[in-house]
Design a protein that fits this description.
Largest sheet: 7 strands, mixed
Structural class: alpha/beta
Helix content: 25-40%
Number of domains: 1
CATH topology: Spore Coat Polysaccharide Biosynthesis Protein SpsA, Chain A
Strand content: 15-25%
Strand order of the largest sheet: 3-2-1-4-8-5-9
């Protein structure tokens, strides 16, 4: 990781890490590959060139011990924090001189450094945007119709218009050719976020919007409040680890490399 660029010297990665998880207990400490899932994510994030550093924001001493074991920077955060975003904001409060904070989930061991750099660069290039995130084309009807796959539509400036669990935009009439169109007609949202540090401190104070409550999507709070959120495009989405099957598939992919 380098801090040689102007963007890099003012950006920083925070990985929020929670010990307990519902579908895959203590998943960040799984180490079937010889490294814990948390260490894999830390190493993946370290491939980004623009940010000047990384800190893991943890809620439990076991996670803090693990980060110290592999030589990472760690900060204990409030175990009662309502979300990973709150944990990131707690760390960001002490990062004086940093302008852009990147939130990388602890269960994203295959996230590319280029994706992180893109999220940072979007905010460098668009002074009006307070947040950035990523999206990738949807090429399967099953994925388009799946409520667990969050969709996003953007304006001509690459700013988010709306996020939804429903298929958006709605195609009338439908044609399967829409799934292979270039540029793509449909985009899946990827849950990587970069924030201006000043805005991140305000985010928790914004009222929960009606749209956010209906869709159960926190990013809609930002749009409902009238802020600009930039969306960068990548070819593929990294696979997050949520279930035992996800973890085993990751282990197999790693062994096949």
């Amino acid at each position: 990781m380098s801090n040689s660029s102007s963007a890099g010297s003012s950006s920083f990665i925070v990985i929020p890490a929670r010990l307990e998880s519902t579908r895959l207990p203590r998943k960040l400490l799984l180490r079937e590959t010889g490294r814990t899932l948390l260490e894999h994510t830390y190493l993946a994030a370290s491939q980004a060139r623009l940010p000047s550093g990384i800190c893991v924001a943890v809620d439990h001493p076991l996670l803090a011990d693990e980060v110290r074991r592999f030589g990472g920077r760690v900060q204990m955060t409030d175990p009662r924090a309502a979300s990973g975003t709150d944990r990131v904001a707690e760390v960001a409060a002490g990062l004086d001189g940093i302008e852009i904070i990147v939130n990388v989930q602890g269960d994203e061991p295959e996230l590319s450094g280029d994706a992180i750099d893109l999220a940072v660069q979007l905010l460098v290039d668009d002074p009006q945007a307070v947040m950035s995130t990523l999206a990738t084309p949807i090429r399967a009807r099953r994925q388009l119709d799946d409520p667990s796959c969050v969709k996003v539509v953007m304006d001509d400036l690459g700013r988010a218009l709306y996020f939804s669990r429903s298929p958006i935009p709605f195609a009338r009439p439908w044609s399967d050719r829409l799934l292979t169109a270039e540029p793509a007609c449909f985009y899946q949202h990827i849950g990587l976020y970069a924030y201006r540090r000043t805005f991140l401190r305000q985010l928790a104070t914004l009222p929960r919007s009606g749209l956010e409550a209906l869709e159960s999507l926190e990013q809609l709070r930002v749009l409902s409040a009238g802020y600009a959120l930039r969306v960068g495009l990548v070819e593929h989405a990294a696979a997050g680890i949520d279930t035992p099957e996800d973890y085993q598939a990751f282990v197999e992919r790693l062994r096949g490399r």
